[in-house]
Amino acid sequence: MTEYRGVVTAQGVLGVNAFKDISGGMRNIFGGRSKSYENELASGVSDAPAEMEKQADHLGAHAVVGVDIDCETVGTNRLMVSGSGTAVKLG
Questions:
Q1: Model pTM greater than 0.85?
Q2: Other CB atoms within 10 A of residue 35 CB
Q3: Smaller CB count within 10 Å for the chain: N or C?
Q4: What's the Cα-to-Cα distance from 30 to each of 24, 27, 76, rounded to whole Å?
Q5: Per-residue confidence in pLDDT tens, the chain, 91 aa
Q6: In this structure, what DSSP letter does residue 27 have?
Q7: Phi first, then psi: what are they for 9, rounded to 5°?
Q8: How far from chain centre, in Å, is Cα 8?
Q9: Which domains does the chain have, with CATH numbers?
């Protein structure tokens, strides 16, 4: 790394529709994994690095390092994904 270009971030709030919410609620009662929630979360987690890469490119950076991605629930039927990293130039 030869140059620091700045911090890049990404945020997304993912809505979970009523059918997915019912399915997830049933999993809470009977146990097991909720594929609908997992798929929605995986989508958000994969979108965050892509957004950070776009921002890094705009800053003239070659890479994003020190990436942190966090996931939280917002209300009863939304998932929030946020990420941050440092855009750098490589030499």
A1: no
A2: 12
A3: C
A4: 10, 5, 19
A5: 999 999 999 999 887 654 445 444 545 555 556 666 777 788 888 899 999 999 999 999 999 999 999 988 887 778 889 999 999 999 9
A6: H
A7: -135, 165
A8: 13
A9: 3-89 (3.30.110.70)
Contact 16, 44 (CB under 8 A): no
In total, the chain counts a number of residues equal to 91
3-state helix vs strand vs coil in the chain, percent to 5: 40, 40, 20
Residue 38 tokens, joined: 């997992």
Angle at 42 between CA 36 and CA 46, to 5 degrees: 150
Longest dimension (CA), the chain: 54
| 3, two tokens | 């140059």
CA torsion 50→71→42→51, rounded to 10°?
-10
